Amino acid sequence: MKQPGRILLGLFCLLVAVWLVAPTIVVVPMSFNDKKSLAFPPSGFSWQWYQNFFTNPEWSASLVGSLKVAVVTAVFATVIGTLAAFGLDRMKSRVSGVLRALLITPMVVPGVVLAVGIYAVYLDTRLVGTMTGFVLAHTMLAVPFVIIAVSASLEVFDKRLETAAASLGATRLTAFRTVTLPLIAPGILSGLLFAFVTSFDEIIVALFITSPYLKTLPVQIFSSITRDADPTVAAVGTLLFIVTSLVIGAGLLIGSRQGKR
Amino acid sequence: MASPSTRGAAIDLKSVSKQYGSFIALDKVSLRIEPGEFMTLLGPSGSGKTTTLNVIAGFTEVSSGSLDVGGKSVIGVPAHKRNIGVVFQHYALFPHMRVSRNVAYPLTLRGIANPDREARVRKALDMVKMADFGHRFPSELSGGQQQRVALARAIVFDPPLLLMDEPLGALDKKLREWLQLEIKRIHRELGTTFVYVTHDQEEALVLSDRIAVFNQGRIEQIGTGRQLYDEPETLFVGKFVGDSTILRGAASTSGNETAIEIEGRKVAAAKRLPDGAKPVMLLRPEKLSLARRGKGGQDRNTLPGRIGEAIYLGSGSKYEVVLADTSKAIVRSTLDAETFAIGDEVDLIFAGSDVKLLADDEKADFTLT
């Protein structure tokens, strides 16, 4: 009786898995197409779109731009978000509830609304198309993710350990550095990754504030696909898919090793 | 290392109060603890004993009053500058550090480098019999082992004062009893002043030189275990320390004698209470004996009752006797004494000289949690 039920359940899980992953997987064969079209299935095999991605200055410039923005954003968002989460954690609960809701808003406000607002402000302040402009906007978008991730690990952090550290002679700053920080590090690290990814694949705000001088990868992908169905897009997609899989896999591995302790 | 007698710090609390909004956690508490003394703060939860400990440790600022440790005022001195060891009920070991690094932590903060640091860590771990566990993480240890490591961490920097907040509260009875003896031994070897918080009166009796009994933010009595048991000054102390039987009834005084009338019988005690106090009488279980109804001596105080509960303890028996006014008496008897069954009609017999006359107090009721 039990076996057929289990097989059926297994098949259903497989179906869901395929449904979730298939659209992502489709870009892999498309990236090896030998013709300049986004057809599926591809008609032949070639590496030319990968070659194009790395040699065409338009593509490599946008990759570098994206990485720069994402790295700086991730650092800023992580510092600001961690401090904010720490402050919220140590506040009176009524005040912190309101503040927390306020700090999370960039995540729930529709992206387009935010983008229009940012664009309007940037026009006046000449921030459109600048590094500063991108980092400011993306940091705002990424901070909520850091706050959520760090808050989650502060939630399970035993504050009494700080009291113990104080009794052993540690100032508040030393206690934070030697006890609190190492114990909430997994939360901070996952906040950092979230912040990086948030910035790296952000497109709505980027489309508004982009310029010929500073373009991010998503903007380049979007304009390339709307202009000339370039299979380089599929090659970029495949590369991003592999890199993110590796990063997330490594993250899970670190997480599970920490969990065992 | 200095000799034991000079190593402990004296503690002097004078009229210390602590308020949280309208709640008074400590109400003018005064307590002097001698250097090297083992002082236990005993009381039910919410009685102020942990608040007192937190005040001494510097985790809680006082609302008013003075606090001297080692002859110097520590009011306004932050916890990390007080150089006081603290052991917590929840161990509070740092989970990301191995045992040896946990114990080395206070030494590292004090700038003590190897090899001195390593030697002191080993010595502290030796003292708590955990020398073989230095490379383990706290999560790889049992509760009792973790608490011993926490103790080593609290004494490794030679503080003149060690505070312990219900350190054995999370452990089972056998382990608790064994660790009590270990703590006593360590206290003897170190000569440090120990201040120990517990709600377990038996633990307090086992460990302490003196006990301060707390109730509702005040100290009811300070004394040795024997003093508290034999000569309780308040009804609360009588009820909280050891088992007791409380007799209440219509009181009358004549000369230097007070009598209470219970179910038509008068029980007398040779003492007078200050005017206005309502007298109650307290009797310890071993001062009471039982006889079948009508078979007891005539020359002593007797009260009729019925056995409500009979408990075999191994070394003897404990009876709960329901008296005529439904109050309960607790009687302990030895193995060779006559045994009784639930429902037996008995007489409760005691000598008038064993009766403790105390003032009634509605604040004497407590709940253990």
TrEMBL record, chain A:
Family membership: Belongs to the binding-protein-dependent transport system permease family.
A Pfam family hit: BPD_transp_1
GO CC terms: plasma membrane
Subcellular location: Cell inner membrane; Cell membrane
Broad class of where this protein is predominantly found: membrane
Protein name, per record: Polyamine ABC transporter permease
Any one biological process term the GO annotation gives: transmembrane transport
Domain ABC transmembrane type-1: 63-252
Protein's UniProt keywords contain Transmembrane: yes
InterPro entries (alphabetical): MetI-like, MetI-like_sf
TM regions (residue ranges): 63-86, 98-122, 134-157, 178-209, 233-255
Membrane topology annotation: Multi-pass membrane protein
Keywords: Cell inner membrane, Cell membrane, Membrane, Transmembrane, Transmembrane helix, Transport
Automatic annotation (TrEMBL), chain B:
Protein's UniProt keywords contain Nucleotide-binding: yes
Ranges for domain ABC transporter: 11-241
Domain of life: Bacteria
Record-level Gene Ontology MF annotations: ATP binding; ATP hydrolysis activity; transmembrane transporter activity
Pfam families, alphabetized: ABC_tran, TOBE_2
GO CC terms of this entry: ATP-binding cassette (ABC) transporter complex
Statement: the UniProt record of this protein carries the keyword Transcription regulation: no
Family affiliation: Belongs to the ABC transporter superfamily.
Name of the protein in its database record: Spermidine/putrescine ABC transporter
Originating organism: Mesorhizobium mediterraneum
Lineage: Bacteria, Pseudomonadati, Pseudomonadota, Alphaproteobacteria, Hyphomicrobiales
